[in-house]
Amino acid sequence: MKLLTIFCSGSKVEEVRRLVDSHEVHGYTEIPEVLGSGETGRHLGTRAYPGTSAVILTAVGSDKAEELISSLDELARGCSPEEGIRVLVLPVERMI
User: Fold this and answer.
1) Using an 8 Å Cβ cutoff, are 9 and 84 in contact?
2) Residue 39 burial (10 A CB sphere; 0-12, 13-18, 19+)
3) Are 3 and 59 in contact (CB under 8 A)?
């Protein structure tokens, strides 16, 4: 089992959500409007640094994780530099 932590621009969250749903991943947690800074610039929700990001977390089987990661990678390649998508993949040792 893998934990996918998906970071995306606020403008891409709906596309990411649809993609997750299309892979029949029905259990996830979404944290909307997170603030931060990275390769895509600062997203602080201010006039100087407009925009926000979102985080979607989901724990899925290893096979499903690979399928979803592949689709997310394809989506990310079509994004502009300001609309980056990043995915962290961590092993899940135990889920209660």
Assistant:
1) yes
2) exposed
3) yes
Q: Which CATH number fits domain 2-91: 3.40.50.10490, 3.40.980.10, 3.30.70.100, 3.30.70.120?
A: 3.30.70.120
Boundaries of every domain in the chain: 2-91
Mean pLDDT (the chain, rounded)? 89
The pTM is what? 0.87
Sequence-separated (6 or more) residues with CB below 8 Å from residue 40? 9, 81, 82, 83, 84
pLDDT at 68: 96
Record the tokens describing residue 92, joined without a space: 């899940």
